[in-house]
Amino acid sequence: MKKFILSLLSLGLLASFTGCGSDEKSTTNKEKVLKLALWDANQKPVIESMISNFEKENPGVKVVVEITPFSQYWTKLETAATGGQLQDIFWINAPNFTKYAKANMILPIQDLADNKAINTEAFPEGMIKMYTYDNKLMAAPKDIDTTALWYNKELFDSLQLQYPNDNWTWDDMITTAKEIKNKTGNYGLALGFSGQEDYYEIISQFGGRVISPDKKTSGFSDPNTIAAVKEIKQLLDEKVIPSLGEIADTRSSDLFQSQKVAMTYSGSWMVKQYMKNEIIKDKVDLTKLPLKTKDAAIIHGLGYAIYSQTKHPEEAKKLVTYLSSKDSHDIQAKSGIVIPAYIESQEIWTDSYPNLNLHGYSNMLPNGIEYPASLNTGKWEDVMNEYLNKVWMGELTPEKACEIINEKMNSILKEEA
Asked: 124 with 343: CB under 8 angstroms?
């Protein structure tokens, strides 16, 4: 990580002399080309419709969308950064943001916030904080995601059980999950052991933290965090939820789509997939997460970042400004693919599937907690997953695993200072 940061910092000095980004020669007589990097091919038609509007308003500017699958995206982005060939604008997420911001690979856009070209008050405060570095806005919020409780109405009807609702508590969910298991032999609830969609959420619901708000210390010494880990282990021991091995064979979302489980935690990015599934699309719905100690949920979302050495900084800023407008977010909202970060556009998204209670997601946003991330997110996430998996498999007690995670995570965070 340090080697990568140092190489990028050195490159930043070199690039200031050479210039990178779009590879066409910029002249007053030629069209200026901006490259936009993203990873989700499903969003390309929506992005391109927004870009078409931008190009009509900005003759002489051409935007080329370049798609790299998520599994390869960060590797290719790092290679491009090291070689001074980053795209002019690129999608960034919270786990990778600080690395690129610290390496001076992102052009600050605080000026756009200061002159109200980007209205920061139109976005959730947590999203603005997420993409602020050294007191400067570095990326424009694109979308926002969180988690809700999905359930199969048909399975609940067959057992004459009340549907989950916004007033449900954690105990209501667990009691119902046990009842379903006892009556049918199938799991009432499944977790994916995937971080944001489940144990990050559960830790937040129990009042704990994965990382401190200032990103300097681990949250695994917090009694509430330890209590959340203990609760998940108890659910495993009582066979209320599928084991880690079962989930490794069949993901929780696949169990839900095959109607082998009645409830599951799912991120808002799963809406489109569930609604494309002919088997369940008319049988499922969702509601906000059940209340435990705290009505909370992890929020995350993507941002549009501008390469610090783009040849066309003004044009890039114009594009990011347009992509941050209400008009662009309305277009994104109507597609139903993702929740727009722009608050006033979110109601359009909730109406994109009239048969679903998408307010189950939007109702979580006001109490959103910033996605846990720091400079070396991947490093301490590997530690966390390694030792939590030992808990799920019965190799370590929750208390011992949290102690080890806390010690190792704090050591990693101390190196970031």
From this structure: yes
